[in-house]
Amino acid sequence: MLIDHDLIESDHAHVLHPLYHPSAHQAMKLWVRGQGAIVTDMHGQEFIDGLSGLWNVNVGHGREELARAAYEQMQQLAYYSSYVGSSNLPTIKLGEKLAELMYPSINTFFFTSGGAESTESSFKTARFYWKAVGKPDKVKFISRIKGYHGVTMAAMSATGLPAYWPMFEPRVPGFVHIDSPYPYRFVNPNPEVSDGIAAANLLEAALLREGPETVAGFIAEPIQGAGGVIVPQDDYFQRIREICDTYEVLLIADEVITGFGRTGRWFGLEDYGIEPDIIQFAKGITSGYVPLGGIGVNDTIRDVIETVPGEKRWMHAFTYSGHPTSCAVALANLDLIEREGLVARAAEVGAHMNNALNELGTLAGVGNVRGKGMMAAVELVADKATKAPFPPAENVGGRVQKEMTSRGLFTRVVGDTICIAPPLVTPVETIDRMVTIIGESITAVCQ
């Protein structure tokens, strides 16, 4: 149809997309509708949403309750500044609700427009805290290879995916990376301890190299998402918490993907029995219906913010912090998650999904299947015995993605790793169809 061509040409002429290059945008999908776990393109073709939009549409598409919450709040007060001296009812109520749901030591929240702003807020808050308590040299941050924390300048500098760096160098100074725990590929340098302890001890080694008196915080996703859904060893985070306590380093949990039920818990670190000092969140707090993110700080940090002299105040701000409409939608979204038992459902249906995906491990080309709750990954390799990857020139991941799309599944492939994170409401039969499509697509490319 002529309209197709016109819209595509207009898109090319007027829109720069995330991670943009025209070579990757020739067969774009123009999405027009979503319902539950299904999205529909402009031709009326339906696809399973294998990544919940971008890890965020937890309650599924087309929820009238969230549209109604936005409409009703916009009628009453669409926006007003939440700068010091002002507030609004949805922001206050959302803070109260998060204090109920979060780790017990975290009861105070600052709201942003999304994940990267939340990362920046975490870094600035950590530096503020150490300056306020008389340790101004603690300014560095340690993060992990394959971690993703956003792509604003400081967030990009913490992100451990090198493809994001070259055309924006130099990065912000003061950021150091250690290896991911990545169970499938981690090489333990000390067989006297478990892989999880050895991976965590890389943080201690980095602290000693940098000087712990110079390090403000360590930032980590409970499960590394964009890096390939990397679930750490069970004993990893307990040791991380011990190291942070020993060397007076703030532990920043990046729960932008893992928060609000994705892992089968409200928050990802709950599985490991520890609490962070700062938590950052976004995505699932509104299921992507409107932009919202934020950070939560523990009571110790909150008390310092409350008691510094006025001239040393926490001078951090965004125009849309505490946006009334976004906070109203977040409250409605959290109500849906609770009322429909979606956290428990993510654990139950996620176990089914991961068990079904594990059966693909016998296929040629499948090196590793991993996941927790409603997030998983299938890593493709050229040689199962050696774990050798396919040569990049073969574009195996891209070819498998094309096969999946042709069969009605739209999801993301990172290198040769298929990432899966469907909405928490996805029916079991749709999960099974998704797994079948993945298997057929791998076989079509790797047989």
UniProtKB/TrEMBL annotation:
Keywords: Aminotransferase, Pyridoxal phosphate, Transferase. PANTHER family: AMINOTRANSFERASE (PTHR43094), AMINOTRANSFERASE CLASS-III (PTHR43094:SF1). The keyword Transferase applies. The lineage of its organism: Bacteria, Bacillati, Chloroflexota, Chloroflexia, Chloroflexales. The keyword Repeat does not apply. It comes from the Bacteria. This is Aminotransferase. It comes from Candidatus Chloroploca asiatica. Pfam families: Aminotran_3 (PF00202).
